Amino acid sequence: MIVSRKLNWKHIIYYTRFKLLYFILLSVAVYVLHAKFNLSFLSIPFNGVATLSTALAIYLGFKNNNAYDRWWEARKIWGLLVNFSRVWAREVITMITPKNPEDYLKTIELQNRLLYRHIAFVHALRVFLRQRKEYNDNNVREIIEVSNGYADIKKFISEEEYAEFLTKQNPPNFLMKLQGDDIKEAVEKGWITDYRFVKLSETLGEFQNHQGMSERIKNTPLPRPYSFFSRVFVTIHGTLIPFAFIEELGWINIPLSVLINFVFLALDYVGERTEDPFENRMDDVSLTSISLTIEENIKEMYGDEDLPIKPKANLGVIM
């Protein structure tokens, strides 16, 4: 997630360079043909292009609003995941109590499993959501965090659970199933009452809701006609701009056309890069930072002093 108020111009030029080069060369070519070869028929009415500009601005605004809604919904989902993770830690610590003194160590072991397995779930969900889909642009230079898969999760669960975890199509969901099994066993042993079992189950249900809502955003891209036609319309509009100004502005048409085209091009790219918030890019939701916040909160509540080191912003970007 970009947190700096100033964007890096190297990044901006990198992602817009091909379209900008096309618009620059076109503007220069139109000027040369009109001024040097007196091809006055190249000029087109300004009013027609102005009408197209208005329509394109409305179209891009509609697309960007929907793209931002997807990004903001993703951030709200992970904000709720933070909140309910704290609730889960409190419930596990306060609600699971031994029926007999000799069961004390066993309940401590159960609390440990439930809390650290939840940390594993959060990190597993982060990795699971950041897997590339066939409809994503596989531009590896954009990826801001090189993932080592699920290797870091191994320290939070047992070796047997981890081995089975790696065989699952949906590893985070498998961890939720193990959580349910453990609290069911705690009820049978009398360590939690039926009421407390219901409360713990409701919290687990919230986690699965958060996962499902995240998967919905991940697996359902913004309708592709919006992305496709926005690129087409921006290109058509940018191609016509130099022809609309050449008659009255002469060489000034070159920088003015490039500037106008850059504005529309930037609007198009903002929407395109915002619509998919789980792709491990610099403008995505900062899943790594949020996951470490959850890990830190749970460990602190449980009394574990081995807190994770949260990454600082690098070039204005938090992972």
From TrEMBL:
Pfam families: Bestrophin_2 (PF25539)
Top-level taxonomy: Bacteria, Pseudomonadati, Bacteroidota, Flavobacteriia, Flavobacteriales
Protein family membership: Belongs to the anion channel-forming bestrophin (TC 1.A.46) family.
Residues spanning the membrane: 12-33, 39-62, 228-246, 252-271
Name listed for the protein in its UniProt record: Bestrophin
Annotated signal sequence range: none
PANTHER family (UniProt xref): UPF0187 PROTEIN YNEE, VOLTAGE-DEPENDENT ANION CHANNEL-FORMING PROTEIN YNEE
Localization, UniProt: Cell membrane
InterPro entries named in the record: YneE/VCCN1/2-like (IPR044669)
Keywords carried by this UniProt record: Cell membrane, Ion transport, Membrane, Transmembrane, Transmembrane helix, Transport
Membrane topology, as annotated: Multi-pass membrane protein
